[in-house]
Design brief:
Elements (H helix, E strand, L loop, with lengths): L1 E3 L13 H10 L2 E7 L6 H11 L2 E4 L11 H14 L5 E10 L7 H18 L3 E6 L2 H10 L5 E4 L5 H9 L2 E5 L9 H9 L5 E3 L25 H12 L3 H15 L1 H9 L1
Parallel strand pairs: 1-2, 2-3, 3-4, 4-5, 5-6, 6-7, 7-8
Helix pairs in contact: 8-9, 9-10
Length: 267
């Protein structure tokens, strides 16, 4: 069984054919997904999608959404997490983090929201899904100060030293469509050299489409059904079989999110 450890199935891009998207994923062997939140106003929608299909979800405020978020949103997030503790589909905090790409929201504001959400994860002993873009050192700085029970560094593309430090903090490293490009040398090197216990697979659908979708005409909406083919590329890079990688991915995702493991057993 494949697990997509990062898929925005609740995104509006899937509104017209979400059932079919899930059917295609399941036909490809993707039986479980983890759906991370991005903003407070979409929490109910997110829960509805997760429960409709029996998937896991996390709650959090994405760093690219903090510009329109306020202190009341942190309060609403805290209350939502308190309430969701009895929900078997709720598995952690995310997608949180820092994004220092050009045009991203003010760095200080991002750090304020990131620290607040790390403290929330710490208070409930919940793993987190961390967004990492040009921000690994700053993310690690706060992870050293505010201890959380690990999680996943989504779409990791840092240095070898940063990779080691995330792993030392209890995080797995997420690999997806970017690893299918021959020019993604750093990501491919991480995909090969990361410890077996640190590798997890993701699509970030509808984003980060794999290389072959960029060769197609028309829209490039990524889907969770692409995960096995993405995994086949990563398995070849690591010189193992896709079946072995499926087992590694499943074990690591469920180890990172114990509540998702319980949900998977109940499914």
């Amino acid at each position: 069984m494949w697990i997509d450890s990062h898929c925005h199935l609740d995104a509006e891009e899937f509104d017209t054919d979400r059932e079919q998207v899930v059917e295609r994923a399941q036909a490809a062997g993707v039986q479980m997904m983890l759906i991370p939140a991005v903003e407070v106003s979409e929490f109910e929608r997110l829960r509805g999608v997760a429960h409709r299909f029996g998937f896991g979800y996390t709650l959090g405020i994405h760093p690219l959404y903090v510009a329109q978020a306020g202190e009341t949103d942190l309060g609403r997030l805290s209350e939502a997490v308190r309430t969701a503790r009895v929900d078997p589909n709720f598995v952690g905090i995310g997608e949180i983090g820092l994004d220092f790409h050009e045009g991203a929201p003010d760095a200080g504001r991002q750090e304020h929201f990131y620290q607040a959400q790390l403290r929330l994860a710490h208070s409930w002993s919940l793993p987190v899904v961390v967004h990492v873009r040009r921000s690994a050192d700053r993310l690690l700085k706060y992870l050293r100060r505010i201890e959380v029970p690990g999680g996943i560094a989504h779409a990791f593309n840092g240095s070898e030293q940063q990779a080691r430090e995330f792993v030392a903090c209890g995080f797995r490293l997420g690999f997806g469509g970017s690893a299918t490009f021959s020019g993604s040398l750093r990501i491919r090197r991480h995909a090969v050299e990361a410890p077996e216990s640190a590798v997890v697979l993701e699509t970030d659908a509808p984003d980060i489409a794999p290389q072959w979708m960029h060769q197609q005409a028309g829209r490039r909406r990524n889907e969770p059904a692409q995960l096995p083919r993405i995994a086949a590329v990563i398995a070849q890079l690591r010189s193992i079989s896709p079946e072995q990688l499926a087992q590694i991915n499943r074990r690591n995702v469920l180890d990172a999110f114990p509540r998702l493991a319980a949900l998977s057993r109940a499914a």
